[in-house]
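Handoff note, outgoing to incoming analyst
You'll be picking up this chain. Sequence as last confirmed:
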Amino acid sequence: MAVTDLLRDLRQAIRVLGNAPKFALVVVLTLGLGIGATTAIFTVVNGVLLAPLPYRDPGRIVSLATRWKDTGRVTPRLTGGDLVDIRNQAGVFSAFSSYVGGDIGVQIGGHGEFTGTYLVNAGFFGVFGVTPVYGRLFDDSEAGRSALVSRLFAEQCFGSGAVAIGRSIRVENQSYAIVGVLPASFHFPAKAEVWLSAATTPGNLERDAYNYRAVARLRPDIAVETAQSDLDTIGARLQAGFPKTNRNKTFAAVPLRERMVGTIRSTLYLLLGAVGLVLLIACANVANLLLARTPGRARELAVKTALGAGRWRIVRQLIAENLVLAAAGGVLGVALARGGLNLLLHRAPANLPRVDEISLDWRALAFTTAIALLSSVLFGLAPAWQAARLEVVEALKLGGTRGVVGRGSHRLRDAVVIVEIALSFTLAIGAGLLFRSFMALTGVDLGYRAAGLLVMYAHAPAHTLKDSLAVGRRFDELLQSIRSIPGVVSAAGAMGMPAGQYGSNGGFAIEGRQVFGAGRLPQAGFRLASPGYFAAMGVPLLAGRDLNAQDVYESPFVAVVSVSLARQNFPQENPLGRRIQLGLDDATKWLTIVGVVGDVRADPATPPGPEIYMPLRQHPFYANEIQVAVRTSMPPASISGAVRRQVMDLLPETAVKFTTMDEMLSDAVATPRFRTSLVAIFAMVALLLAMAGVYGVMTYLTAERTSELGVRLALGATPGAVVRIVLARAAVFASIGLLLGVAGSAALGRFLATLLFGLKSSDPATYLVVIAAVGLTTLAAAFGPAWRAGRIDPLAAIRQE
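Most recent structure output, in case you need it:
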C-alpha cells in the first residue's frame, strides 16, 4: 500500500511540475549546478584521501621519517646509519626497504630517456605485496645486476611484457637485466617505471646525510602506536650511542596514505567545504522559489483539503514533488560532474597524488544520490511547513494568493535570503584572502630573471670517475655549441636551479670554528654551477669573482656563497678567502670562498636561505645530471629543437627534456593557484545565486506591498522615496547577512591561516573590499524591483486592492 501511494504521489508530482515547466527547469538547473560541482570535488577527495591505497592490506604500510624532538620538525628521510640500525633492531616490521631515485636517464638501445627509476632492495616488494605479471622478483644477491619494470614501460620499449624478460637496460653506464614485469597499476613511488636491485646496506652510512626514504610493513599483530613506541626506544638508544649526530633525534612511523596526501589534504577539504556552501546556497534559492510558489497554489491546496485531504497528505505531495526535482537535479549533476571532473584534473597541480585512481565510480554516484536526497530535505522543509499552515477558509474565500499561508511566510523567505548573503560573504572572504595571498606569492622578488629562460634537463650516463670527468668536458663543449645557436644570449649548466628537481643540502664547517662530522653544523643549500651561470640567470655578483674555466677537478676547490650565508656566518668580517668543508662528495676537501652573490628563492613561497655554489667540474659525480639554463632573445621553447640536436651530436646517449623557467615557476605555485581559482569560481557562483535570491524576495515583497506603495504615491510620496523604502529593506537584509558572514569568516580564517602567504587571515583590506562588494551587489539586485515600485500607477494599485 505504501509503495502504491508513493508511486501515485510521484506520478502526481510529475504532472504538477509538468504544468510549470519554467519553474521546474530553473529549480533543476540550480540543483544540478550545486550537486554537480559538489560531486566533482567529492570524487577528487574520495580518490585522493578516502579510497584505500591499491596495495595489499595498505593500512599496515608505513613510511619512516626522522623527527627532531626539540623543534617537532619532521624530515621524510633517514640517514644510512640510522636506517641500518632501525632495520636490524626494530621487531615490529614484517618487511622493510629503503629507496632512492627519481626521474633519471635510462639507456635502451643507445638512446636515453628520462624515466621514473628507483634503487630498491628485495624487501621493497614484500612491503607492498606486489607480484610480477611476467618473470619474477629479484633477491638481495642480485644487487647491481637485475631490474623490474612496469608493464607500460615494457610494452612501450619492447613491445610486450613477455618480450622484455631477459632484455637489458643501462643506468649510469651499468647494465641491468630485466627479470620481471610488474602490473600496470603499481606505481610507487609516484610515476615509477623501473626498479633497480640495490644492496641492503646503503652506500652512505653517515648519520648526518639524509639521503634515503624508507617504507615498511607492520607485522599483523602490531599497531602503528606500538611501532612508534619501538622507534622511540631505538631513537633514544642511538642518541646515547651517537650524541653528536643523533642529539634530539628520533624516528616516526607515518601511515603511507598520510605521507602521500598530507601536503594536499587541507586544499581538498577547503574545496569540499567551499562547494558545500555553494550547494547550501543553491538549496536556499530553491527553497525561496518554492516559498514564492506556495501562495500561488493556495486555492489548489485549499480545495484538496476541503475535499478531505489531510495536512499530511498535502505535505506528502509536496515532498514527492521535491524528490522529483532532486532526482532530476541529481541526474543533471552527474552529467555536469563528469565534465567538471575532467576540468578539475586538467587544472590540478602536478603533485596531486593518485590522479590515475580518480574516477566517477559507485562511491561518487552513492554520494550524488545521498546529496540529492539531502538537498530535497534542505529546500523542501520550509515550503512544506508553510503549506501545512495554510488558512483554508481564507484561501477559498479570497481565491487569491495573498494573506492565506500564514503570517510567518515572509519571515521564512527573509531568513533564507539572509543566510544566502552570509554564506556567500563567507565564501567571498575566503576567495579574497586566497587571491591576495596568491598575488603576494607571485609578486615576490625571486633574485633572478625568469623571463626568456629555456631549461634543459640532461642526464649523461657515467659510472666511474673517469666517465664523470669525460662527461664534464663534453658538457663544456655542449654549452659552447649552444651559445652559437642564433637567438641564444647565454647558456650555463647547474645542478640545483631554483624551482627545479635537483638539489642538495647539508651542514658545513668553517675553518677554525667547527669540525666537520662533529656536532651540529650551520646548514646551507648545495648547488653546482658552470662559469657564466650567474650572468645567465641574472643573479648579481656582489663581491669577489665568478666561477671560471680554471675551476676544474685538478685545481684547488673553491666556492661562491650567497649573501645570506655571508651575513649569518661572517657578520663582521670578509668571507672572501675563508675556507669551508662539507660532505657533498669529498668531505676531506677544503673549499675557499672566492665570491658572494645575491640571494635567490628556491621557490616563491620559500624565503632565501644560505647557499653554497661550487664548480660543476670540481664535483664530477654530481655533474653528469644537470640543468642547462639558456637565455634567449626569442620565445624560449622555439629553440628547444636546435638545442636537442646539439646534444644528440655531442652526447647521443644523453636523456633530455625541456621546460622553461616560467613553466617551472608556474608548477611551483600550482597548488595555491588551483585552490585560489576554484574557490574564486565557487564564490562568484555563490554570490550570483544569493543575488538571485535577493532579487526574488524583493520582487515578491514589492508585489505584496503594491497597494501600500500606491497609496503612498497617491498621497504625494515621490518615486525616489518609494525606491528608498524598498532599498532600505534590502539594506537590512545585507547588514544582517554581513554580520553573520563576518562571524563565519572568522572561523574560516583560522583554517586558512596556514595556507596564506604574506598576509593574515584577518586582513582588514580584504574584509573592507568584500563587505563593500557584497553590500553593493545586494543593493544592485534589489534595485530592479525598487525601480518598478517607484513607477507603480497609484490609481491602478488602489483599484486592485
